[in-house]
Structure to design on (357 residues):
């Protein structure tokens, strides 16, 4: 059964459609009205079949152009940004035309940023094809590219016109990428969504085996939580910060490994373990609840070992985190299960303590 959700405020409100065969003319054609030209942006790791299916669903409503980037985080570059802008200009795209991102978070982020800046903004649609993109990056309007000084340092808040989540595209995703996406699903359960927490606890096997019905349910629950939070706080002035649960440490672990050793979701899983432990050390949650968090992460077979990292090595990366405001490090901690809070009132000694297994 197709499921629908909405995110964004007033005229920036957009529909998120979730179903097994969501990539179809029936779902896409209504979004193409008034757009004579459409640029599909994807990368060469996304199965061609998926891009072809999107192209077929767009025709004959619009004239379709395609740019396929080289897969990998490097694709979110200033060079590609400029290349796509030039392509749009040379193909005479105007503000009534459209961009469709077909891919993971990398494709979604650069496509969204191009859409936000070409002619000061043209419409775009997200068709996310990784679990991470389906439960996280395609919703919320954050777009970004990387510069040599750091990841995601340039970008804009720019909502898509629609998000189409076709769960059948996940079939070809590697198990490792799939599990990395699951870390973000667990995040929503821990910060806000109690029923998602129990859903995850009840069905780990079916989820790991990618049984369709349960996957659709956890994607819906994740997006439901994300959409609620980002609609309330479009530009990250408040509540939206809880989406960074586990991320201060996760980002530090990723950066420490020069973004080569570990996937984002794998690092976030370790980060959530640390954040939960600090919550316990700060007496915000009981030891029993902390153990429930660890048990959930272990149910999904995350490697939670921390012995290869030492606090002193990670510290500079932790302190560099964007979430530092007015010189104080803000942490997302748990007040209770499925209830996160942002605080700068914690004993810094507990940061180090939490990293000891
Ligand atoms: N904008 C946001 O709110 C937000 C949130 C989280 C992450 N991000 C960004 O997202 C990016 C990570 O996204 P990601 O994890 O999706 O990585 P990704 O986009 O690099 O995709 C991972 C790999 O899977 C391949 N792939 C995509 N779909 C596939 C499919 N259906 N079958 C087989 N292979 C497929 C890709 O080609 C790529 O090689 C990072 O750049 C991160 O900064 C953005
Ligand atoms: Zn994340």
């Amino acid at each position: 059964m197709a499921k629908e959700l909405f995110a964004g405020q007033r005229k920036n409100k957009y529909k998120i459609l979730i179903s097994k065969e969501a990539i179809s003319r029936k779902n896409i054609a209504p979004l193409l009205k008034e757009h004579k030209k459409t640029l599909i942006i994807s990368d060469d790791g996304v199965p061609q079949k998926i891009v072809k299916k999107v192209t077929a669903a767009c025709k004959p409503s619009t004239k379709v152009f395609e740019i396929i980037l080289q897969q990998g985080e490097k694709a979110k570059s200033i060079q590609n940004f400029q290349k796509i802008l030039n392509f749009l200009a040379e193909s005479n795209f105007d503000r009534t035309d459209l961009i469709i991102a077909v891919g993971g978070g990398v494709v979604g982020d650069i496509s969204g940023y191009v859409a936000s800046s070409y002619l000061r903004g043209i419409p775009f649609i997200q068709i996310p094809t990784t679990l991470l993109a389906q439960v996280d990056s395609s919703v919320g309007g954050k777009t970004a590219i990387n510069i040599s000084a750091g990841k995601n340092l340039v970008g804009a808040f720019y909502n898509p016109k629609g998000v189409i989540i076709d769960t059948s595209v996940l079939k070809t995703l590697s198990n490792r990428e799939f599990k990395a996406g699951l870390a973000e699903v667990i995040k929503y359960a821990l910060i806000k969504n109690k029923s998602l927490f129990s859903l995850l606890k009840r069905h780990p096997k079916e989820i790991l085996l990618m049984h369709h019905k349960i996957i659709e349910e956890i994607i819906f629950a994740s997006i439901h939580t994300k959409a609620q939070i980002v609609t309330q706080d479009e530009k990250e002035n408040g509540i939206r910060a809880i989406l960074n649960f586990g991320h201060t440490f996760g980002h530090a672990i990723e950066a420490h490994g020069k973004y080569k050793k570990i996937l984002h979701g794998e690092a976030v899983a370790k980060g959530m373990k640390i954040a939960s432990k600090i919550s316990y050390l700060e007496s915000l949650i009981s030891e029993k609840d902390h153990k429930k968090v660890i048990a959930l992460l272990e149910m999904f077979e995350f490697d939670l070992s921390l012995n290869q990292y030492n606090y002193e090595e990670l510290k500079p990366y932790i302190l560099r985190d964007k979430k530092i405001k007015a010189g104080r490090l803000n942490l997302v901690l748990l007040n209770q299960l499925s209830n996160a809070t942002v605080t700068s009132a914690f004993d810094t000694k507990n940061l180090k303590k939490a990293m000891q297994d």
